[in-house]
Amino acid sequence: MSNATPPESPLRVAERVRNIRISATKLMPMLAAKVGGCVSLGQGVPSFRTPDHIVEAVCRALRDDPTAGRYSLQPGMPALREAIAADILARKGARFDPETEIGVTVGAMEALVMIMLTVVERGDEVIIPSPGYASHAEQVLMAEGVPVHVPLRAADWGLDVDAVRAAVTPRTRAIIVCSPGNPTGGVYDDADVRALCDLALERDLVLIVDDTYDYMVYGEAPGTPRFSPVSQPELRRHVITVNSFSKKYALTGWRVGYVAADAAWMAELLKVHDATAVCAPTVSQHAALAALTGPQDCVDAMRTALTVRRDLTCRRLDALAPHFTYVPPRGAFYAMARYTFTDADSMTVARRMLEEARVITVPGGSFGPTGERHLRLSFGMDEAELTEAFDRIQHWVAAL
Ligand SMILES: Cc1ncc(COP(=O)(O)O)c(C=O)c1O
């Protein structure tokens, strides 16, 4: 018998996983950890701590409720589903039965995966207004579908309904609607969303509405009415909506979100939830319940802070002209900064900025082809970190 180690047989990874990638948003902080001493305009994590009353409610539940550490009912705790249904009714005027039409999930992320696996057949096309949230495309690929990137309007990152209409083919199954948008900070006009609803009805498409940032539109009082496909009764079976507690209530690490859909869809979606997560973490459901039913002044305070950070970001980007141009963000907490000082691709520029200026950004190309020649800047961090990041960029650009 030889002592030689036998050659390893190649790893046979399934195509659906070979086809997907870890998003650049998560990769950049890993690279930054190797570089050291970086400040971040990278990952979309607001700097806020989980509000005290939410922490208290979870501690209380863990102390006093013997079921707080156990699995919840598979679709989620009944009290939380009721609170979610009441919140959707109050904010969007849509009625969902908490018994059969709300599912609590492991972040909006799990909800999106449940939807893709349930709606998308192999080879089905899903239209993603681009640049769009990178994970949407990966989730479509994971479901063996085909992401079809349709450019947003460059002037304001609004929806180009004519371009979306032109992209619809007999294989089109769904359209992603994410407004306010990540990575653009763009907010779609009501008229354009209405037109998209007409298109969904006409061509029998599903609108996958990702409302993760629906609480954060600058210059708009909370509760300002905004057209939502969710509230249109004739679209009941054409709309599946997800939302997240992550950003609105500073609960990114708790991993809790939800999906709301017609009962017929929900029965199918919950099969995927059962096969993947069983239920969302029960302690996190307690956190979400406290978030929804407790005082909302923490959200107001975060909105106010984000408004200050947005204004700071715009001022600093203005000062970086003509090296960068950008569309002032109308929502969420992102800006796409278009660089004009090089023809290099966005990954090369983001890596150079990381290594030479020690500032983390996300290459725009990772959000679809329309994102190339941009860097996504997240302004979720506090003013001191934002100021330091922009000071470093300013020195770096001056020395180019
Ligand atoms: C548009 C969008 N959808 C979904 C998510 C995921 O949210 P969650 O933390 O609830 O999984 C994010 C997170 O950045 C996002 O930006």
TrEMBL record:
- Could you tell me the EC number(s) of this protein? 2.6.1.-
User: Which keywords has UniProt assigned to this entry?
Assistant: Aminotransferase, Pyridoxal phosphate, Transferase
Q: What class of enzyme is it?
A: transferase
Could you say which cofactors this protein requires?
Answer: pyridoxal 5'-phosphate
**InterPro entries found in the cross-reference section:** Aminotransferase_I/II_large (IPR004839), AspAT/PAT-like (IPR050596), NHTrfase_class1_PyrdxlP-BS (IPR004838), PyrdxlP-dep_Trfase (IPR015424), PyrdxlP-dep_Trfase_major (IPR015421), PyrdxlP-dep_Trfase_small (IPR015422)
Pfam families (alphabetical): Aminotran_1_2 (PF00155)
Protein name in the entry: Aminotransferase
List the source organism: Nitratidesulfovibrio liaohensis
